[in-house]
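Is this the right way to post structure tokens for a design question? Let me know if I should format differently. Anyway, here goes:
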């Protein structure tokens, strides 16, 4: 039973307004003593130009870190990195039990073993379909079809109503492996009465329904069978259904499957343990590749996103110790380019084509389907669950806005356009954004996690744009120079347009500036620094048209 001042609230901390970093809180109770559950704890990928040196991005969970004594549990919908990838880094700040399926638990465990110093996370294994009670929340794991095994929506029952948090899902009557999104189950939830549907927006801009994973499997089988020579297929390591379909197709035509890449090995170990690869011939190690006849092999590769250190990129550069492809071989991208990776993928494709290798992608063949619902599938979900409130989630601003329009068209009365950090009251009363709380991003920088406000990134961008000049000057207590100043530079062109050496030019300027300073002023290190700094930057700007950073180190001797 809810007491009169209880409220049910929703507070996304990641994934709304961006792809990746999914993390959403649900809170229940009176305003000053709410209890919370966290759904998913995902990461995003850096690699963007404005984030030099940053590979991984995490949601800023400050709000719940401070409230962690009221955090009842972390409920993971499925094992994609955008849903579990921040756990290893962020769990020590939260320390609540983490509910996962066996497959996700296996992946987290293999990661822990491969990362020295990774924390032992308190994992609680659940099976899809299971219901569990924690505080005021009753949480049911509802299986859905997606592109990784054991994906679930969550039906979250509270004394103030039932929320369906879809996680990532699609409709696929023939998913090849793994769960179906059950119409019966979601209709039953609708009949029970859904207060709010928090739903995947990734593909809301696409009409119709996605093809089935089984159609992809069929086409891949044909492409493997018809290939005259070697076949290499790159796909997301976590797409076990896809991997299984490749392995079955290979067996059909008497080809061995060679698995190349650590991420792939890790997932396959866990998938084998969970029984998803039962009945298949054993996969081969990369060092067998060279001994197999060209028409008797299929290589499964990591690196579908163009990652420079992954198997595919190294093979394309002919730098892989075990795997080499040659003219007439066929490379299939059974994947989609994640926005931002197109350039890297494009350069791999070009390099393979230069070598006479045939390329097949999802642009010219059905070799990949998305794991997310298109409009036709979304419409069915709305019909089944008939929510009072719709909250578009899992998407960039464009997807969320499109989804909001779409939900209204489906006849949903209340559509809330939430963003990371908006506290939405779902009940009682009409839904409403009642507060804005701290949210944002954290960056994994080397092995340190830094805040978005730190100086390191703008400084790095500045260095990348115009380099740095360093000047060291030794001055004695009379204000005389003790030796010649030392000048060095990084990231500057060697010569100006007239062909004069840039370092000589800078050294001359430093000399002129120091000569121009009266002795008394030269005894003041700060005055020297300022004058040299200003002189160098303006001289370089005149010579180059750009102002580098400039460090002036004055040593008093
Ligand atoms: Zn997913
Ligand atoms: Zn996702």
């Amino acid at each position: 039973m809810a007491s009169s001042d209880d409220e049910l609230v929703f507070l996304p901390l990641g994934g709304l307004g961006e792809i990746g970093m999914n993390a959403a809180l649900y809170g229940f109770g009176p305003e000053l003593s709410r209890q919370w559950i966290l759904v998913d704890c995902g990461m995003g990928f850096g690699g963007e130009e404005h984030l030099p040196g940053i590979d991984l991005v995490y949601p800023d969970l400050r709000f719940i870190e401070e409230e962690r004594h009221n955090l009842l549990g972390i409920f993971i919908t499925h094992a994609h990195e955008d849903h579990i990838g921040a756990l290893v880094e962020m769990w020590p700040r939260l320390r609540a039990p983490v509910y996962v399926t066996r497959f996700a638990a296996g992946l987290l465990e293999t990661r822990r073993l491969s990362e020295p110093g990774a924390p032992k996370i308190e994992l609680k294994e659940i099976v899809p379909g299971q219901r569990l009670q924690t505080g005021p929340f009753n949480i049911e794991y509802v299986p859905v079809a997606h592109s990784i095994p054991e994906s679930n929506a969550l039906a979250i029952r509270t004394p103030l109503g039932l929320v369906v948090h879809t996680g990532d899902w699609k409709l696929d009557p023939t998913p090849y492996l793994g769960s179906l999104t059950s119409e019966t189950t979601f209709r039953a939830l609708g009949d029970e009465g859904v207060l709010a549907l928090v739903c995947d927006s990734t593909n809301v801009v696409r009409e119709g329904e996605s093809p089935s994973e089984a159609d992809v499997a069929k086409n891949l089988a044909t492409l493997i069978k018809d290939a005259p020579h070697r076949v290499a297929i790159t796909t997301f390591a976590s797409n076990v259904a896809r991997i299984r379909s490749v392995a079955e197709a290979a067996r059909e035509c008497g080809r061995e499957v060679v698995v190349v890449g650590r991420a792939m090995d890790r997932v396959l170990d866990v998938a084998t343990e969970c029984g998803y690869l039962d009945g298949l011939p054993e996969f081969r190690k990369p060092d067998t590749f060279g001994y197999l006849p060209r028409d008797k092999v299929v290589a499964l590769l990591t690196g579908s996103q163009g990652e420079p250190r992954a198997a595919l990129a190294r093979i394309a550069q002919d730098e892989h110790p075990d795997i080499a492809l040659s003219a007439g071989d066929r490379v299939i991208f059974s994947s989609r380019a994640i926005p931002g990776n197109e350039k890297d993928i494009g350069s791999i494709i070009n390099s393979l084509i230069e070598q006479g290798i045939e390329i097949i992608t999802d642009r010219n063949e059905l070799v990949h389907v998305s794991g997310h619902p298109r409009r036709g599938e979304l419409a069915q979900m709305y019909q089944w669950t008939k929510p009072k409130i719709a909250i578009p989630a899992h998407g960039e601003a464009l997807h969320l806005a499109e989804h909001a329009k779409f939900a209204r068209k489906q006849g949903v009365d209340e559509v809330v356009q939430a963003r990371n950090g908006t506290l939405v009251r779902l009940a009682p009363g009409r839904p409403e954004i009642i507060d804005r709380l701290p949210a944002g991003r954290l960056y994994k920088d080397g092995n340190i996690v830094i805040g978005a406000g730190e100086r390191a990134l703008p400084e790095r961008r500045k260095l990348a744009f115009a380099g740095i000049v360093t000047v060291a000057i030794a001055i004695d207590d009379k204000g005389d120079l003790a030796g010649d100043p030392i000048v060095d530079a990084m990231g500057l062109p060697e010569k100006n347009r007239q062909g004069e050496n840039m370092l000589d030019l800078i050294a001359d300027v430093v000399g002129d500036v120091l000569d121009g300073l009266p002795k008394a002023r030269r005894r003041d290190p700060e005055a020297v620094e300022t004058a040299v700094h200003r002189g160098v930057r303006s001289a370089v700007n005149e010579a180059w048209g750009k102002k580098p950073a400039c460090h002036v180190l004055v040593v008093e001797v």
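Format looks fine. Someone answered above. Worth noting: The mean pLDDT is 95. The first strand starts at residue 7 and ends at 14.
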